[in-house]
Amino acid sequence: MNITVVGTGYVGLVTGTCLAESGANVTCVDIDVKKVEKMKAGIVPIYEPHLDVLFERNIKQNRLQFTTDLKSAIQDSTIIFLALPTPPGEDGSADLSYILGVAKDLGEMITDYKVVIDKSTVPVGTSEKVEKALNKALDSRFGNDTINRPDFDVVSNPEFLREGFAVDDFMKPDRIVIGSSSQRANDLMDKIYAPFVRQGNPVIFMDEKSAELTKYAANSFLATKISFMNEIANLCELLGANVDDVRRGIGTDTRIGNRFLFPGIGYGGSCFPKDVQALAKSSSEAEYDFKILNAVMDVNKTQKTVLVPKIKDFYNNDLKGKKFAVWGLAFKPDTDDIREAPALYIIDELIAAGAEITAFDPEAMDNVKELIGDKISYVSNEYDALDAADALLIFTEWQIFRNPNFTKIANQLKEKVIFDGRNLYDLKNMQELGFYYNSIGREEVKK
Ligand code: NAD
Description:
Elements: E1 2-6, H1 10-21, E2 25-29, H2 33-40, H3 51-60, E3 64-67, H4 70-74, E4 79-82, H5 97-109, E5 114-118, H6 126-142, E6 152-156, H7 166-171, E7 176-179, H8 183-193, E8 203-206, H9 208-239, H10 243-251, H11 272-285, H12 291-304, H13 307-314, E9 323-327, H14 342-352, E10 356-360, H15 365-372, E11 377-378, E12 391-394, H16 406-412, E13 417-420, H17 427-433, E14 436-438
Parallel strand pairs: 1-2, 1-4, 2-3, 4-5, 5-6, 7-8, 9-10, 9-12, 10-11, 12-13, 13-14
The structure holds nicotinamide-adenine-dinucleotide.
Nicotinamide-adenine-dinucleotide binds near residues 31, 85 and 121.
Protein backbone atom coordinates (compact mmCIF):
# COMPACT_ATOMS: atom_id res chain seq x y z
CA MET A 1 0.00 0.00 0.00
CA ASN A 2 1.47 3.37 -1.05
CA ILE A 3 0.49 6.37 1.03
CA THR A 4 1.35 10.07 0.79
CA VAL A 5 1.17 12.33 3.84
CA VAL A 6 1.23 16.06 3.14
CA GLY A 7 2.53 18.10 6.09
CA THR A 8 5.06 16.62 8.52
CA GLY A 9 4.19 18.36 11.79
CA TYR A 10 3.09 16.66 14.99
CA VAL A 11 0.18 14.97 13.21
CA GLY A 12 1.65 14.32 9.77
CA LEU A 13 4.97 12.90 10.88
CA VAL A 14 3.39 10.64 13.49
CA THR A 15 0.75 9.51 10.99
CA GLY A 16 3.32 8.81 8.28
CA THR A 17 5.69 7.00 10.60
CA CYS A 18 3.00 4.86 12.22
CA LEU A 19 1.47 3.95 8.85
CA ALA A 20 4.95 2.90 7.67
CA GLU A 21 5.26 0.83 10.86
CA SER A 22 2.11 -1.04 9.77
CA GLY A 23 3.87 -2.04 6.55
CA ALA A 24 2.73 0.73 4.19
CA ASN A 25 5.15 2.52 1.90
CA VAL A 26 4.85 6.15 2.98
CA THR A 27 6.09 9.35 1.36
CA CYS A 28 5.90 12.45 3.51
CA VAL A 29 5.77 15.85 1.81
CA ASP A 30 6.54 19.21 3.35
CA ILE A 31 7.23 22.66 1.92
CA ASP A 32 9.75 23.36 4.66
CA VAL A 33 12.98 22.54 2.84
CA LYS A 34 15.14 22.58 5.99
CA LYS A 35 12.77 20.22 7.75
CA VAL A 36 12.80 17.79 4.84
CA GLU A 37 16.61 17.91 4.70
CA LYS A 38 16.74 17.11 8.41
CA MET A 39 14.35 14.16 8.05
CA LYS A 40 16.28 12.84 5.06
CA ALA A 41 19.37 12.95 7.27
CA GLY A 42 17.52 10.79 9.80
CA ILE A 43 16.76 13.57 12.29
CA VAL A 44 13.27 13.76 13.87
CA PRO A 45 12.42 17.48 13.69
CA ILE A 46 10.04 17.50 16.68
CA TYR A 47 10.17 16.05 20.18
CA GLU A 48 7.62 13.28 20.55
CA PRO A 49 8.32 10.31 22.86
CA HIS A 50 8.93 6.96 21.09
CA LEU A 51 8.77 8.52 17.62
CA ASP A 52 12.53 8.27 17.00
CA VAL A 53 12.70 4.46 17.20
CA LEU A 54 9.89 3.97 14.67
CA PHE A 55 11.23 6.77 12.48
CA GLU A 56 14.71 5.25 12.27
CA ARG A 57 13.45 1.71 11.72
CA ASN A 58 11.10 2.64 8.88
CA ILE A 59 13.67 4.81 7.12
CA LYS A 60 16.18 1.97 7.36
CA GLN A 61 13.67 -0.48 5.92
CA ASN A 62 12.79 1.93 3.09
CA ARG A 63 9.15 2.35 4.03
CA LEU A 64 9.45 6.05 4.93
CA GLN A 65 10.56 8.71 2.46
CA PHE A 66 10.61 12.51 2.53
CA THR A 67 10.33 15.06 -0.23
CA THR A 68 9.26 18.61 -1.02
CA ASP A 69 7.85 17.49 -4.38
CA LEU A 70 4.13 16.81 -4.09
CA LYS A 71 3.78 15.64 -7.69
CA SER A 72 6.32 12.85 -7.43
CA ALA A 73 5.03 11.90 -3.97
CA ILE A 74 1.48 11.23 -5.16
CA GLN A 75 2.42 9.52 -8.40
CA ASP A 76 2.06 5.98 -7.06
CA SER A 77 -0.24 6.63 -4.10
CA THR A 78 -4.00 6.31 -4.20
CA ILE A 79 -4.16 7.50 -0.62
CA ILE A 80 -3.26 11.09 0.24
CA PHE A 81 -3.48 12.32 3.83
CA LEU A 82 -3.53 16.07 4.47
CA ALA A 83 -2.03 16.98 7.84
CA LEU A 84 -1.69 20.69 7.23
CA PRO A 85 -1.92 23.65 9.60
CA THR A 86 -5.30 25.27 10.20
CA PRO A 87 -4.25 28.23 12.36
CA PRO A 88 -6.77 30.80 13.53
CA GLY A 89 -7.35 33.63 11.08
CA GLU A 90 -7.75 37.20 12.32
CA ASP A 91 -11.44 36.69 13.09
CA GLY A 92 -10.86 33.40 14.94
CA SER A 93 -12.08 31.17 12.13
CA ALA A 94 -9.79 28.39 10.90
CA ASP A 95 -7.47 29.49 8.10
CA LEU A 96 -8.07 26.96 5.33
CA SER A 97 -5.58 28.40 2.87
CA TYR A 98 -3.03 25.59 3.39
CA ILE A 99 -5.62 22.86 2.82
CA LEU A 100 -7.36 24.51 -0.11
CA GLY A 101 -4.00 25.42 -1.65
CA VAL A 102 -2.90 21.78 -1.63
CA ALA A 103 -6.36 20.68 -2.86
CA LYS A 104 -5.93 23.00 -5.84
CA ASP A 105 -2.40 21.67 -6.45
CA LEU A 106 -3.75 18.11 -6.39
CA GLY A 107 -6.46 19.04 -8.90
CA GLU A 108 -3.71 20.30 -11.18
CA MET A 109 -1.64 17.10 -11.01
CA ILE A 110 -3.67 13.95 -10.33
CA THR A 111 -3.92 11.51 -13.18
CA ASP A 112 -5.77 8.60 -11.58
CA TYR A 113 -8.22 7.86 -8.73
CA LYS A 114 -7.19 9.35 -5.36
CA VAL A 115 -8.68 9.44 -1.90
CA VAL A 116 -7.88 12.79 -0.30
CA ILE A 117 -8.12 12.37 3.46
CA ASP A 118 -8.28 15.41 5.66
CA LYS A 119 -6.61 14.83 9.04
CA SER A 120 -6.40 18.50 9.93
CA THR A 121 -8.98 19.99 12.27
CA VAL A 122 -11.38 21.92 10.06
CA PRO A 123 -14.82 23.55 10.25
CA VAL A 124 -17.94 21.84 8.99
CA GLY A 125 -18.17 22.18 5.23
CA THR A 126 -14.42 21.96 4.54
CA SER A 127 -14.71 18.60 2.73
CA GLU A 128 -17.06 20.29 0.28
CA LYS A 129 -14.59 23.14 -0.19
CA VAL A 130 -11.73 20.68 -0.80
CA GLU A 131 -13.89 18.86 -3.33
CA LYS A 132 -14.73 22.14 -5.08
CA ALA A 133 -11.08 23.23 -5.19
CA LEU A 134 -10.07 19.92 -6.76
CA ASN A 135 -12.97 20.00 -9.21
CA LYS A 136 -12.23 23.56 -10.26
CA ALA A 137 -8.66 22.65 -11.15
CA LEU A 138 -9.81 19.45 -12.90
CA ASP A 139 -12.45 21.44 -14.85
CA SER A 140 -9.80 23.68 -16.32
CA ARG A 141 -7.65 20.69 -17.24
CA PHE A 142 -10.34 18.42 -18.66
CA GLY A 143 -13.41 20.56 -19.44
CA ASN A 144 -16.10 18.13 -20.62
CA ASP A 145 -13.69 15.26 -21.13
CA THR A 146 -15.20 12.84 -18.59
CA ILE A 147 -13.27 9.88 -19.99
CA ASN A 148 -9.79 11.09 -19.09
CA ARG A 149 -10.78 13.13 -16.04
CA PRO A 150 -9.56 11.27 -12.92
CA ASP A 151 -12.01 10.49 -10.14
CA PHE A 152 -11.39 11.27 -6.49
CA ASP A 153 -13.06 11.08 -3.07
CA VAL A 154 -12.64 13.41 -0.13
CA VAL A 155 -12.72 11.91 3.35
CA SER A 156 -12.82 13.67 6.69
CA ASN A 157 -10.71 11.68 9.17
CA PRO A 158 -10.05 13.91 12.20
CA GLU A 159 -7.05 13.08 14.35
CA PHE A 160 -7.38 12.73 18.12
CA LEU A 161 -3.75 12.08 19.08
CA ARG A 162 -2.28 13.98 22.01
CA GLU A 163 1.18 15.49 21.80
CA GLY A 164 3.39 13.63 24.25
CA PHE A 165 1.42 10.40 23.65
CA ALA A 166 1.04 10.75 19.91
CA VAL A 167 2.65 7.45 18.89
CA ASP A 168 0.65 5.45 21.44
CA ASP A 169 -2.53 7.26 20.52
CA PHE A 170 -2.03 6.57 16.83
CA MET A 171 -1.05 2.94 17.29
CA LYS A 172 -3.90 2.22 19.73
CA PRO A 173 -6.60 4.81 19.10
CA ASP A 174 -9.73 4.96 21.29
CA ARG A 175 -11.65 5.23 18.06
CA ILE A 176 -11.24 6.19 14.42
CA VAL A 177 -13.76 8.61 12.95
CA ILE A 178 -14.33 8.49 9.21
CA GLY A 179 -16.59 10.91 7.43
CA SER A 180 -17.29 9.91 3.86
CA SER A 181 -20.13 9.29 1.48
CA SER A 182 -18.12 6.95 -0.75
CA GLN A 183 -18.15 3.19 -0.19
CA ARG A 184 -14.98 2.87 -2.26
CA ALA A 185 -13.17 5.32 0.02
CA ASN A 186 -14.61 3.72 3.17
CA ASP A 187 -13.33 0.30 2.10
CA LEU A 188 -9.84 1.75 1.65
CA MET A 189 -10.00 3.52 5.01
CA ASP A 190 -10.99 0.24 6.64
CA LYS A 191 -7.90 -1.41 5.17
CA ILE A 192 -5.55 1.41 6.22
CA TYR A 193 -6.73 1.33 9.83
CA ALA A 194 -7.25 -2.41 10.28
CA PRO A 195 -3.77 -2.93 11.83
CA PHE A 196 -4.51 -0.28 14.47
CA VAL A 197 -7.90 -1.48 15.71
CA ARG A 198 -7.24 -5.18 16.16
CA GLN A 199 -8.33 -4.98 19.79
CA GLY A 200 -11.79 -3.99 18.67
CA ASN A 201 -11.61 -0.25 19.08
CA PRO A 202 -14.37 1.16 16.92
CA VAL A 203 -14.06 2.64 13.46
CA ILE A 204 -17.02 4.99 13.36
CA PHE A 205 -18.34 5.86 9.92
CA MET A 206 -20.45 8.96 9.42
CA ASP A 207 -20.98 11.78 6.95
CA GLU A 208 -18.24 14.36 6.37
CA LYS A 209 -19.93 17.20 8.27
CA SER A 210 -20.51 15.10 11.37
CA ALA A 211 -16.89 13.93 11.34
CA GLU A 212 -15.66 17.51 11.06
CA LEU A 213 -17.87 18.60 13.94
CA THR A 214 -16.90 15.58 16.06
CA LYS A 215 -13.32 16.83 16.36
CA TYR A 216 -14.35 20.35 17.40
CA ALA A 217 -16.94 18.95 19.81
CA ALA A 218 -14.34 16.68 21.44
CA ASN A 219 -11.74 19.42 21.94
CA SER A 220 -14.30 21.99 23.04
CA PHE A 221 -15.77 19.56 25.56
CA LEU A 222 -12.33 18.85 27.03
CA ALA A 223 -11.50 22.56 27.15
CA THR A 224 -14.82 23.11 28.93
CA LYS A 225 -13.95 20.47 31.50
CA ILE A 226 -10.61 22.20 32.16
CA SER A 227 -12.13 25.67 32.43
CA PHE A 228 -14.91 24.38 34.68
CA MET A 229 -12.37 22.83 37.03
CA ASN A 230 -10.29 26.01 37.02
CA GLU A 231 -13.36 27.98 38.06
CA ILE A 232 -13.97 25.48 40.88
CA ALA A 233 -10.31 25.93 41.91
CA ASN A 234 -10.64 29.71 42.00
CA LEU A 235 -13.79 29.35 44.10
CA CYS A 236 -11.99 26.93 46.43
CA GLU A 237 -9.41 29.63 47.15
CA LEU A 238 -12.11 32.13 48.07
CA LEU A 239 -14.13 29.70 50.18
CA GLY A 240 -11.24 27.91 51.86
CA ALA A 241 -11.92 24.51 50.23
CA ASN A 242 -9.22 22.25 48.77
CA VAL A 243 -9.55 21.55 45.05
CA ASP A 244 -7.59 18.27 45.33
CA ASP A 245 -10.30 16.88 47.57
CA VAL A 246 -13.10 18.25 45.42
CA ARG A 247 -11.42 16.74 42.36
CA ARG A 248 -11.18 13.32 43.97
CA GLY A 249 -14.72 13.68 45.24
CA ILE A 250 -16.22 14.28 41.82
CA GLY A 251 -13.75 12.28 39.71
CA THR A 252 -14.80 9.02 41.33
CA ASP A 253 -18.29 9.54 39.92
CA THR A 254 -18.16 7.42 36.77
CA ARG A 255 -20.50 9.85 35.02
CA ILE A 256 -17.82 12.53 35.43
CA GLY A 257 -14.61 10.48 35.23
CA ASN A 258 -11.27 11.40 36.76
CA ARG A 259 -9.47 12.75 33.71
CA PHE A 260 -9.08 16.40 32.72
CA LEU A 261 -10.02 17.51 36.22
CA PHE A 262 -6.63 18.88 37.27
CA PRO A 263 -6.76 22.64 37.78
CA GLY A 264 -3.85 24.79 36.67
CA ILE A 265 -2.87 27.82 34.65
CA GLY A 266 -5.21 27.12 31.77
CA TYR A 267 -5.08 25.14 28.57
CA GLY A 268 -2.67 26.02 25.76
CA GLY A 269 -1.14 24.27 22.79
CA SER A 270 -1.93 24.33 19.14
CA CYS A 271 -5.35 22.71 19.43
CA PHE A 272 -7.70 23.65 22.27
CA PRO A 273 -7.36 27.46 21.99
CA LYS A 274 -7.78 27.55 18.23
CA ASP A 275 -10.42 24.84 18.05
CA VAL A 276 -12.68 26.37 20.71
CA GLN A 277 -12.31 29.71 18.96
CA ALA A 278 -13.07 28.21 15.55
CA LEU A 279 -16.17 26.40 16.82
CA ALA A 280 -17.40 29.62 18.42
CA LYS A 281 -16.86 31.38 15.10
CA SER A 282 -18.64 28.63 13.13
CA SER A 283 -21.52 28.86 15.61
CA SER A 284 -21.87 32.59 15.24
CA GLU A 285 -21.74 32.24 11.45
CA ALA A 286 -24.62 29.78 11.77
CA GLU A 287 -26.35 32.43 13.93
CA TYR A 288 -26.12 30.23 16.99
CA ASP A 289 -25.01 31.82 20.24
CA PHE A 290 -22.87 29.05 21.81
CA LYS A 291 -22.75 30.67 25.25
CA ILE A 292 -20.66 28.01 26.98
CA LEU A 293 -17.81 28.31 24.47
CA ASN A 294 -17.51 32.05 25.00
CA ALA A 295 -17.34 31.49 28.76
CA VAL A 296 -14.71 28.75 28.34
CA MET A 297 -12.49 31.13 26.35
CA ASP A 298 -12.98 33.97 28.87
CA VAL A 299 -12.14 31.75 31.81
CA ASN A 300 -9.03 30.42 30.12
CA LYS A 301 -7.77 33.86 29.18
CA THR A 302 -7.85 34.94 32.81
CA GLN A 303 -6.56 31.61 34.10
CA LYS A 304 -3.39 31.69 32.00
CA THR A 305 -2.04 34.58 34.05
CA VAL A 306 -3.81 33.82 37.33
CA LEU A 307 -0.43 33.54 39.07
CA VAL A 308 0.60 37.09 38.14
CA PRO A 309 -1.64 38.97 40.60
CA LYS A 310 -0.66 36.45 43.29
CA ILE A 311 3.04 37.10 42.66
CA LYS A 312 2.50 40.87 42.54
CA ASP A 313 0.54 40.79 45.80
CA PHE A 314 3.32 38.87 47.50
CA TYR A 315 5.87 41.51 46.50
CA ASN A 316 3.61 44.48 47.28
CA ASN A 317 3.15 45.23 43.61
CA ASP A 318 6.83 45.90 43.05
CA LEU A 319 8.56 43.38 40.80
CA LYS A 320 11.35 45.71 39.63
CA GLY A 321 14.64 43.83 39.83
CA LYS A 322 13.02 40.66 41.15
CA LYS A 323 14.60 37.50 39.77
CA PHE A 324 12.45 34.47 39.13
CA ALA A 325 13.42 30.90 38.32
CA VAL A 326 10.95 29.29 35.91
CA TRP A 327 10.51 25.54 35.61
CA GLY A 328 8.64 24.58 32.46
CA LEU A 329 7.92 26.49 29.26
CA ALA A 330 6.10 23.94 27.07
CA PHE A 331 2.30 24.11 27.12
CA LYS A 332 2.31 20.66 28.72
CA PRO A 333 4.89 18.01 29.59
CA ASP A 334 6.48 15.60 27.10
CA THR A 335 6.42 18.03 24.23
CA ASP A 336 8.56 20.85 22.87
CA ASP A 337 5.43 22.64 21.64
CA ILE A 338 5.09 26.16 23.03
CA ARG A 339 2.15 27.33 20.96
CA GLU A 340 -0.22 29.28 23.26
CA ALA A 341 1.80 28.09 26.28
CA PRO A 342 0.62 29.84 29.47
CA ALA A 343 4.31 30.23 30.47
CA LEU A 344 4.85 32.74 27.66
CA TYR A 345 1.91 34.89 28.74
CA ILE A 346 3.05 34.95 32.38
CA ILE A 347 6.66 35.68 31.43
CA ASP A 348 5.51 38.62 29.29
CA GLU A 349 3.59 40.16 32.20
CA LEU A 350 6.38 39.60 34.71
CA ILE A 351 8.97 41.15 32.41
CA ALA A 352 6.66 44.11 31.73
CA ALA A 353 6.52 44.60 35.51
CA GLY A 354 10.33 44.75 35.68
CA ALA A 355 11.20 41.17 36.69
CA GLU A 356 14.05 39.04 35.31
CA ILE A 357 13.54 35.40 34.36
CA THR A 358 15.88 32.43 34.19
CA ALA A 359 14.15 29.37 32.78
CA PHE A 360 14.63 25.66 32.34
CA ASP A 361 12.53 23.28 30.25
CA PRO A 362 13.72 19.79 29.26
CA GLU A 363 12.63 20.12 25.61
CA ALA A 364 11.08 23.50 24.78
CA MET A 365 13.95 25.97 25.31
CA ASP A 366 15.09 26.04 21.67
CA ASN A 367 11.60 26.93 20.50
CA VAL A 368 11.29 29.66 23.14
CA LYS A 369 14.72 31.05 22.21
CA GLU A 370 13.62 31.23 18.61
CA LEU A 371 10.47 33.11 19.63
CA ILE A 372 11.64 35.56 22.31
CA GLY A 373 15.44 35.28 22.16
CA ASP A 374 17.32 36.72 25.12
CA LYS A 375 14.31 38.36 26.78
CA ILE A 376 14.91 35.65 29.38
CA SER A 377 17.97 33.56 30.33
CA TYR A 378 18.16 29.80 29.83
CA VAL A 379 20.01 27.19 31.84
CA SER A 380 20.71 23.54 31.22
CA ASN A 381 19.19 22.07 34.37
CA GLU A 382 16.42 22.98 36.78
CA TYR A 383 18.67 23.75 39.75
CA ASP A 384 20.87 26.25 37.87
CA ALA A 385 17.76 28.37 37.32
CA LEU A 386 17.44 28.88 41.08
CA ASP A 387 20.74 30.69 41.71
CA ALA A 388 20.04 34.03 43.39
CA ALA A 389 16.39 33.90 42.38
CA ASP A 390 13.75 35.44 44.64
CA ALA A 391 11.26 32.65 43.94
CA LEU A 392 10.62 29.53 41.92
CA LEU A 393 7.70 29.59 39.48
CA ILE A 394 6.39 26.30 38.05
CA PHE A 395 4.54 26.45 34.75
CA THR A 396 4.72 22.92 33.26
CA GLU A 397 4.22 19.63 35.11
CA TRP A 398 7.24 17.77 33.74
CA GLN A 399 7.72 14.54 35.67
CA ILE A 400 11.26 15.55 36.76
CA PHE A 401 9.86 18.52 38.71
CA ARG A 402 7.57 16.34 40.81
CA ASN A 403 10.10 15.05 43.28
CA PRO A 404 12.92 17.60 43.47
CA ASN A 405 15.64 18.07 46.04
CA PHE A 406 13.94 20.65 48.28
CA THR A 407 17.12 21.22 50.31
CA LYS A 408 18.88 22.29 47.14
CA ILE A 409 15.95 24.52 46.21
CA ALA A 410 15.97 26.11 49.67
CA ASN A 411 19.75 26.65 49.58
CA GLN A 412 19.84 28.20 46.14
CA LEU A 413 16.81 30.49 46.29
CA LYS A 414 17.17 33.82 48.11
CA GLU A 415 13.95 33.00 49.93
CA LYS A 416 11.98 29.78 50.20
CA VAL A 417 9.13 30.89 47.91
CA ILE A 418 7.35 28.79 45.28
CA PHE A 419 4.42 29.72 43.04
CA ASP A 420 3.16 26.52 41.46
CA GLY A 421 0.78 26.70 38.49
CA ARG A 422 0.46 22.91 38.34
CA ASN A 423 -0.10 21.81 41.96
CA LEU A 424 2.91 19.51 42.02
CA TYR A 425 3.56 19.44 45.75
CA ASP A 426 1.83 18.33 48.89
CA LEU A 427 0.70 21.22 51.11
CA LYS A 428 1.67 19.53 54.38
CA ASN A 429 5.12 18.70 53.05
CA MET A 430 5.68 22.30 51.97
CA GLN A 431 4.58 23.51 55.38
CA GLU A 432 7.00 21.13 57.11
CA LEU A 433 9.84 22.22 54.81
CA GLY A 434 9.16 25.85 55.68
CA PHE A 435 8.34 27.10 52.20
CA TYR A 436 5.93 29.86 51.25
CA TYR A 437 3.91 27.88 48.69
CA ASN A 438 1.14 29.24 46.53
CA SER A 439 -0.70 26.87 44.17
CA ILE A 440 -4.07 26.69 42.41
CA GLY A 441 -7.30 26.12 44.30
CA ARG A 442 -5.54 25.22 47.53
CA GLU A 443 -4.72 26.98 50.75
CA GLU A 444 -1.69 29.29 50.63
CA VAL A 445 1.12 27.80 52.73
CA LYS A 446 2.79 30.56 54.73
CA LYS A 447 6.31 30.27 56.06
P1 NAD B 1 2.25 21.60 12.42
O1 NAD B 1 2.22 23.07 12.26
O2 NAD B 1 3.09 20.98 13.47
O3 NAD B 1 2.65 20.94 11.02
C1 NAD B 1 2.16 21.32 9.79
C2 NAD B 1 3.21 21.01 8.71
O4 NAD B 1 2.64 21.29 7.44
C3 NAD B 1 4.47 21.87 8.83
O5 NAD B 1 5.60 21.04 8.83
C4 NAD B 1 4.42 22.74 7.57
O6 NAD B 1 5.70 23.07 7.07
C5 NAD B 1 3.65 21.86 6.62
N1 NAD B 1 3.05 22.55 5.48
C6 NAD B 1 2.46 23.76 5.42
N2 NAD B 1 2.02 24.00 4.17
C7 NAD B 1 2.36 22.94 3.41
C8 NAD B 1 2.16 22.58 2.06
N3 NAD B 1 1.55 23.40 1.21
N4 NAD B 1 2.64 21.39 1.65
C9 NAD B 1 3.26 20.55 2.50
N5 NAD B 1 3.47 20.82 3.78
C10 NAD B 1 3.01 21.99 4.25
O7 NAD B 1 0.73 21.18 12.60
P2 NAD B 1 0.15 19.95 13.47
O8 NAD B 1 0.24 20.25 14.92
O9 NAD B 1 0.70 18.68 12.94
O10 NAD B 1 -1.40 20.06 13.07
C11 NAD B 1 -1.87 19.76 11.77
C12 NAD B 1 -3.39 19.73 11.84
O11 NAD B 1 -3.81 18.67 12.70
C13 NAD B 1 -4.02 20.99 12.39
O12 NAD B 1 -5.25 21.21 11.76
C14 NAD B 1 -4.26 20.64 13.85
O13 NAD B 1 -5.33 21.37 14.41
C15 NAD B 1 -4.62 19.17 13.75
N6 NAD B 1 -4.34 18.39 14.97
C16 NAD B 1 -3.22 18.64 15.69
C17 NAD B 1 -2.96 17.86 16.81
C18 NAD B 1 -1.74 18.14 17.65
O14 NAD B 1 -1.69 17.60 18.77
N7 NAD B 1 -0.76 18.88 17.19
C19 NAD B 1 -3.84 16.84 17.18
C20 NAD B 1 -4.96 16.59 16.39
C21 NAD B 1 -5.19 17.39 15.28
